[in-house]
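Handout, page 2. Input:
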Amino acid sequence: MDFVHPVEAVIPGTQGRVLAVLAETTAELNLRTVARLASVSPAQTSRVFPGLVELGIVERREVPPSSLFRLSRQNVAAQVVVELARSRDIALHQMGSAAGELPVPPVSVIIFGSFARREADWHSDIDAVIVRPDGIDADDDTWIAGVEQWREAVRAITGNPVEVIETAQTDAAMKLSSKRSLWRDVARDGVVVHGATLDELQGAVRT
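Output:
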């Protein structure tokens, strides 16, 4: 999935670009503003608006000498567009829910890299750190199966390859406080979707 331009990925062309702009605001916008924000010409924008208005996805209000447009958020199709625009946030929530359903819940699950930085497109991996409880061995069969279950769930949620770094809780605290570039990235950009926060993990070292 392209999480940078999720609406345009599913609804290609001018129509997708216009809908993506309208999904990001509840304000009324004139045609030229929509065209500028969508990076398409006013002529292209004017061609797609009549159909969107006829479908009830977009509302049009005449304010002479111009018209104002906004997404009709009561419309079921428009609601789908809004959900598409929120794909990243929805995916993060579902990643966390999937972690909470594992037979051995992780201490923490942290998403980092391009997805955390809001830069993930369809070519991007979903990079994650899964923190194992200190009382669970790395070769515990139930734990290993759970990590693979989570990886498969996230692949299904996002459509993107999933790369997992696994570490024990004590080791994670030490690594997050280290100078290694990978762990600096995790500490700086990481988004916790389940369990202990980054501050809580790092607090294990400080205390």
